[in-house]
Amino acid sequence: MDAAQAGDAGLRHTLDVGLWLIGAAYLVAALVGLPLFGDGAYYYFKLATDVDLLLPNLRVTAVLPQLPAWLAASLGLDAVAVRHAFSLSYQALPWLSLLACWLVVRRRWPALMVFPLLAALANLINFSGVSELLSSLYLTWPLALAMALAPERPWVRAYALAAGPLLLGLHPMAFVPAFALAAGAAVIAWQTPAQRRTWRRLGLWLAGFGALRLLWTLLGANAYERGNLTPGGLAWYLLTETPGQHVLLATVVLAGLLAGWVLWRRARGSHAAPVAAALAALCLLVLAAALAVAAELLFGHGIKLKAALVFVAELGLMTLAFALIRLTAPSAAASSPATSAALPRGPLRWLVAAMMVLILAKSAAWWTATHNLKTVIAATAADCIAFAPETPYGLQWPWMQVIDDWATPMNALAFRPRVPTAAGGVAPVPLLLPYDGCTVLARTGKAHLTSWLVRDFATLEAVFGPLRYPGTDPR
């Protein structure tokens, strides 16, 4: 076994173990219900109360990860079981995408895994567990690597066929990865005469769905989507917030560029030891930035639904990985498992560790917040709790910021405390309703969890368990 083969064997072992450790961290995040942050609470609430798939802004593909929770609700399982099915499904998406990338590159060029790892790490800046924008990247990463490495495989062509309509129904910006994949198909057609006809057609197929998505975005954007195009909305939607997040995103991009340079030089037989050493040092800095972001999150800073600049960085890393494969030795990359260029194992270990730090820190912040929310509800003697930006005080502690938003009334039900009674049952607990919701509930019997989301008291009690009714219970 030569040095390159030995290096690849070491990388395979490191990542075989690392991917399962990352999977275990995602499992922890699912068990504490992290995907119920923000919009996820609304997606879950609709499934639990209405046994209904949510079609957010006509994004048809978005219903696919909801199917396990919908099935659980359809079978009559309780709200906690539905919550776990929902969380497991959504937390499986980023991990399954990483696993698929690993299965694509593991035998042929394991060092390429540095790029999807860096991209997945950058994704963790975002808190949204149900984002269709991020789902478009989970879908696209394994396909981009498979197209570059094995365009002759029938399953890769089938994947490309399926990706077009799936991207069409995902997100207004999904035309960008669709066009990127179409451009990759054109490169393959140009480089590989034997595959030219097939990939030319697939490129047109992907470009066609990208054009449809772009047209839909331009002509069919709703008020919510247009609101993100204002200067203030665009800045909030695009940018990272805290010093740790800025450094993490910058070091991820720089590490991707250095990794590309190392792999390029080694694939061409050139000396790359100084650059490889710099990459190892930079990946340590990535880990340090991840630790800083973790500390910020635990103290309630930088908790952001989405920073779309991550989307731009990920597409750049994906383009770099594709170009590296096709420019080094496209014919060998497509057919021979011998194509290889090793990275030191150290940088990959630091990236795995950084991912675990961020996933577990987000999980700890969320568990702490939901646990304290349950404590506030269980300790309240009132029949209903008024929720506003200033009240209840318990939600203003730094470690409660992650749950202190418009979705809190839904999360108060999703994570309701189970207070046992002397008879062995479950005691009723108060609802948490925004502003004058308690008064409205007492008068009408309807709970206004948000300005647009209204449910009968009896429906909520049937789904989530015994609840206190403010005033005289009409039953």
Automatic annotation (TrEMBL):
Q: Where are the transmembrane segments?
A: 20-45, 117-139, 159-190, 202-224, 244-264, 276-295, 307-327, 348-367
Where does the UniProt annotation place the signal sequence?
Answer: none
Entry keywords, A to Z: Membrane, Transmembrane, Transmembrane helix
- What name appears for this protein in its UniProt entry? Glycosyltransferase RgtA/B/C/D-like domain-containing protein
The record lists the lineage as: Bacteria, Pseudomonadati, Pseudomonadota, Gammaproteobacteria, Chromatiales
